């Protein structure tokens, strides 16, 4: 086991990697364009991976590379060079689901740790021990495990086998992501990083002898999403996950924005630090601002997942997104009472803003003026990526994030 649990954050881009590190992650996981279970164009190049490793290592953080697709025979030919390039870039571990990939990683990058992916479906201590015997330093546990079974795995496995578990983010409706819906309905394989997420689609019910007569299932005003899972949120009981023997606390979301990753990472950093200050306390008191921060990102309604058994996991009151805050931009520099910012969303004079800083502190302000890059006073920030300045008496850290609550709908 690690001396203290690691906070592991997703990084779908180099920019997100840097924000995850700045906002409190102990380690990040990312992918190159192939073999990483995310076929969307949000991955890193080899050059960006190298830069990300340098950035993380300079701050005492680690970088893990996902190699957790199920490759074909033809694709295996690319892997030796792929693995060597990643090792030379400086990655600290590979996250692997396929035994063939595991063998190649041991051969071509013996000095890089190997972690068994959640796609491998580790649900018991025998499977975890087998992964250890095959050369895994860590196993990523299946999301379907309750805390009691995680504790049993910890008790029955070698002390130096690390356990990783998901603590926040989207959940797949299929066991350990082993879903064929996307392949069947769209030809895009979820096991190869191409999932079209048909479980998120809106469905209607029709009886075969009454074609065209669609029946309401009745869930919300937006329709019925009968396969859709809520988002996992474990912050209120993060202490129990740590006490069960989990070494790495994993946030899901490589396809998420850098704002989402920074915000969620910041919240879990505060939650974990609260636990670590008194790990033997009987009662874990979560700071109020942790849940407040988690509610400032776009998310589905939160659920404890399977950690307390199937009964709580199946309590799904709603599957609609909660989007109560808008991300407005970044603070690039602060000097002499002025914040220099880059636009990521529009706001206008008179709007009340919040600024989340990398150290977790939040500043509120209502700018009295906005000045564009030409030095002209303007009433709003309408242009994507425009540079502007606003007054702020409180010093702000570089890479702070601007946001505001959405206006009430009429």
TrEMBL record:
PROSITE patterns linked: PEPTIDASE_U32
Biological process terms in GO annotation: proteolysis
Membrane-spanning intervals of the chain: none
Domain Peptidase family U32 C-terminal residue range list: 323-403
Keyword Protease: yes
GO molecular function: peptidase activity
Keyword entries, A-Z: Hydrolase, Protease
A Pfam match: Peptidase_U32
Gene3D superfamilies: Translation factors
Family designation: Belongs to the peptidase U32 family.
Protein name: U32 family peptidase
Organism, as annotated: Candidatus Gemmiger excrementavium
């Amino acid at each position: 086991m690690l001396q203290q649990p690691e906070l592991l954050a997703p990084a779908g881009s180099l920019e997100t990697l840097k924000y995850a590190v700045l906002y409190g992650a102990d380690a990040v996981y990312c992918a190159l364009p192939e073999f990483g279970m995310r076929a969307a164009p949000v991955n890193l190049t080899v050059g960006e991976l190298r830069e990300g490793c340098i950035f993380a290592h300079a701050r005492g953080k680690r970088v893990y590379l996902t190699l957790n697709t199920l490759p074909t025979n033809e694709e295996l030919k690319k892997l030796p060079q792929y693995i060597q390039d990643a090792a030379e870039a400086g990655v600290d571990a590979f996250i692997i689901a396929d035994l063939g990939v595991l063998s190649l990683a041991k051969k071509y990058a013996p000095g890089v740790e190997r972690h068994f992916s959640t796609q491998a479906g580790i649900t018991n201590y025998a499977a975890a021990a087998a992964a250890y015997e095959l050369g895994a330093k860590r196993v990523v546990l299946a999301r379907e495990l309750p805390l009691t079974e995680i504790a049993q795995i910890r008790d029955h496995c070698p002390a130096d086998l690390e356990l990783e578990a998901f603590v926040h983010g989207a959940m797949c409706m299929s066991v350990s992501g082993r879903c064929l819906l996307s392949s069947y309905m769209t030809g895009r394989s979820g096991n190869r990083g191409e999932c079209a997420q048909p479980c998120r689609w809106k469905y209607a019910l029709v009886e075969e002898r009454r074609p065209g007569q669609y029946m309401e299932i009745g869930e919300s005003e937006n329709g019925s999403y009968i396969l859709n899972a809520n988002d996992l949120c474990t912050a209120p009981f993060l202490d129990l996950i740590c006490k069960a023997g989990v070494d790495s606390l994993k946030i899901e979301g490589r396809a998420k924005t850098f704002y989402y990753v920074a915000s969620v990472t910041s919240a879990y950093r505060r939650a974990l630090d609260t636990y670590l200050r008194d790990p033997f306390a009987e009662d874990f008191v979560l700071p109020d601002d942790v849940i407040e921060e988690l509610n400032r990102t776009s998310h589905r309604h939160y659920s404890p997942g399977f950690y307390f058994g199937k009964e709580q996991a199946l309590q799904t009151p709603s599957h609609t997104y909660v989007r109560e805050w808008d991300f407005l931009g970044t603070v690039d520099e602060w000097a002499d009472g002025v914040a220099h910012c880059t636009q990521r969303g529009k706001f206008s004079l008179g709007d009340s803003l919040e600024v989340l800083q990398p150290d977790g502190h939040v500043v509120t302000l209502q700018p009295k003026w906005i000045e564009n890059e030409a030095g002209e006073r303007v009433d709003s920030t309408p242009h994507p990526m425009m540079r502007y300045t606003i007054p702020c008496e409180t010093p702000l850290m570089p890479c702070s994030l601007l946001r505001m609550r959405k206006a009430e709908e009429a």
